[in-house]
Amino acid sequence: MSSCSDEGTEFGPNQKVVSFSLFIPGRGISDDADEVIRFRNTLRELFDGIQVNMDGIRANYSSGWIARVYTDLPANYSPSSCDLICKNADMLFWCDVKRIPVLGDLSGMIGRTWRFLPLGDPLVDSFVSRDLDSSISKREWEVVAEWQAMKYPIHVMRDTPYHNTHLVLAGMFGVKNSQLPLGLPKRLQSDIIRVGLLLLYIKSNEPN
After folding, report:
1. How sure is the predictor about 26, in pLDDT bands with cuts at 50, 70 and 90?
2. Which of 19, 37, 45, 163 could cross-link to 158 by cystine, CB 3.0-4.6 Å?
3. Which residue in 13, 203, 198, 43 sits closest to 118, CA to CA?
4. Contact at 8 Å (CB) between 64 and 16?
């Protein structure tokens, strides 16, 4: 079973996935008119970012790569989401984190960790994790293609001198599930879920 959706399961094995998280911190906690307007503007920008990245994958990645958007917004959330999914029906899979096959409701995870769920998906051969507020480029694909031709199962990128950190950047990370030891991808997925749940718990209990 896919760790995305029933449609992801039907798509079959050996998937190559570009994975994104779509989430808006604080969504729905305020009825203030300015906050509602800010939310709608943010959502519009994120939907625009999805389309920019769909176009970028088509233009730069090799054929066969698909996209997953992990989100707590249902596919029919708005006319904009429906239009976006229909326009990109050949490659875009909408992963409702409240209804992930087998795993269930993972909306309690901190949103930025949702995009790592292809790790441990038995139908995913390789995946890369990306940010919606950046865009897929030819330069990026050249680096990913180089990694795909190598024996290394994990890929970590740095793009500027400001990325001088020992941490794995959430939007510049990739894994070949098929090249990790048997059982390890699923264990790592379980660890990510636990960490994602813990991070949101800690964040929600921070003093104001």
Report:
1. low
2. 163
3. 13
4. yes
